[in-house]
DNA sequence: CTGTTAGCGCTTTCAC
DNA sequence: GTGAAAGCGCTAACAG
């Protein structure tokens, strides 16, 4: 018993009626028939063919999840991305959609996925700034962009309040008595996320009259985290006593380097991260960081997307998720100074 | 320009011809026509409709990746799973397939995915022991099972040589001079992976005349890793000087507990893991562990699956991937004893 | 080499 | 309430 037609025959009704039952249009079918058909479906374990449905409806229940990654890169080695996509997956199934996950950086591939699968919607993660114009001008499929900043209005976006997070970090370090601090970005030049975290950080420090020196801003982990550079930075006259890193991953790298150099955390140097990934709990010492609620974010994103799928022509939305401090043990309270 | 039909009209040929060009059946089309049609496809950015193709062929280019997880669980928080599924995703796209990722524990859902999408094949990860019978009796879609042990013959399987890994761990600890050791499983009762690692471990220890005491075998992290139990275990007369954990994640938990108790690793207690996940590098101290090549595994799995898709009726295959020691700093060399 | 034709399994008017 | 029929976009014989 494989097709709708066979179900219809078994029930002695037309295909249209079975179709109505399957799709929950009970108002068009007598409750007797509904029950009878459902019983048969149950008994036979009939499963509708998604391809046929998608063809007939000119739309599938597929949602593309496009994650920016370079050719052949396994982006799920990044724990943040993995957890986020996992959370999206869970949410999508909950709502009856199927995720189509694609790692890419290439607009061609994105376009053929979107069109080839007649996707109902798409979720983008990462800074697709360059391709954005073209993505945006695609057939009118609803999209939500996440973790990126755009100058283009008219897109749906869910992000994290990076400014606020940076600011909290700045204030916290100030309050803990640090007066010389440093910032390590992931990719300052390209990532607006990094730029906002830095901006917020500066603002937070300002409240304590602290200035972040240009020389203490490291645009990428590569330019900061190796032993010689860390050594140089720490041996200066006004060496920073604390580092704020744009992500937990970067913080972890820094901590490794410090361990190798036998520099004690937080006794000699304090470290802060951003994201509150599972790894933040297992570092030594446990990492003080800014938390974002990834499940909530996924939930919001999927909700927003589904809303726009159901009612096209809804005006674009933007949401910024809050962040909060998770105080662990990687930042030392300094004696207050003059 | 959206459909094959339109391309055919534009080129002044029949749909069949365009179809042949799209599917690379160049032997049935003159090279002139091939070029002309390809040019048009290029120019118009035509993308074939996957649903239609799948309907007509009675098979899609979708491969289901079924990951065992409880209802609503985001299994990508497990870094091993995330990395593995990511690697599968990369490999599948490389071969022209689309991954359909599903977290579940429920056979019903598996079945409706497999049938509803007319998947070309499926990859299972986790111990689907209970459902296996039913999965196996499904419509004849090729499957590969990974990271599990089954008594049922006739299935394709790619696993890791857990016995060998366990044995290497046992021999290594023996060679490093440890004489009292302990083993922490993830879920000994249910996981045959754990059981094999334990078995190998015992065998490896035996070469050094070491016996693993029953009381030093912890069936789950819950029964081992909390402070009181660790305290009790370590204060015994013949306290273990080293712990072999069935996974890096468990090892990390143990290390955290030890840190909390201010027990020095490896000076006071040595720790070994299994998997060589990225986290193994960032623990303090870096974790000595057994490595498996996840990309290679994914590659093998996809290769095997595709082989069975192309030639049904191929006899079932089983492959065991090798593992190797990655020596870092979590195991101490003890003075050799009597 | 190329075209014609008959579906794949489902949804969707539109009649009844 | 229910059914008949016309596709959705593509592939797969089979003719020519």
What's this, in brief?
Chain A has 338 residues and is an alpha/beta fold.
Walk me through the structure:
2 copies of one chain form a homodimer. With 338 residues, the first copy, chain A, is an alpha/beta fold. The first copy, chain A, folds into 3 domains: 4-48, no CATH class; 62-160 and 294-322, 3-Layer(aba) Sandwich (Rossmann fold), CATH 3.40.50; 162-291, Rossmann fold (3-Layer(aba) Sandwich), CATH 3.40.50. Chain A has helices at residues 4-11, 15-22, 31-44, 50-57, 79-94, 107-116, 129-136, 162-175, 192-206, 227-234, 248-260, 279-282, 294-310; strands at 62-68, 98-104, 121-125, 143-146, 157-160, 181-184, 217-218, 242-245, 270-272, 289-291, 318-321, 324-326. Chain A has a 6-stranded parallel β-sheet, with helices on both faces. In chain A, strands 7-6-8-9 form a 4-stranded parallel β-sheet. In chain A, strands 10-12 form a two-stranded antiparallel ribbon. In chain A, α8 packs parallel to α9. The longest helix of chain A has 17 residues, at 294-310. Chains A and B meet through α4, α5, β2, α6 and α11 of A and α4, α5, β2, α6 and α11 of B. Chain B binds a DNA duplex (16 and 16 nucleotides) through residues 2-5, 13-17, 19-20, 22-23, 27-30, 33, 48-49, 51-58.
Lay out the secondary structure.
2 copies of one chain form a homodimer.
Chain A: H1 4-11, H2 15-22, H3 31-44, H4 50-57, E1 62-68, H5 79-94, E2 98-104, H6 107-116, E3 121-125, H7 129-136, E4 143-146, E5 157-160, H8 162-175, E6 181-184, H9 192-206, E7 217-218, H10 227-234, E8 242-245, H11 248-260, E9 270-272, H12 279-282, E10 289-291, H13 294-310, E11 318-321, E12 324-326
Parallel strand pairs in A: 1-2, 1-3, 3-4, 4-5, 5-11, 6-7, 6-8, 8-9
Antiparallel strand pairs in A: 10-12
Helix pairs in contact in A: 1-2, 1-3, 5-13, 8-9
Chain B binds a DNA duplex (16 and 16 nucleotides) through residues 2-5, 13-17, 19-20, 22-23, 27-30, 33, 48-49, 51-58.
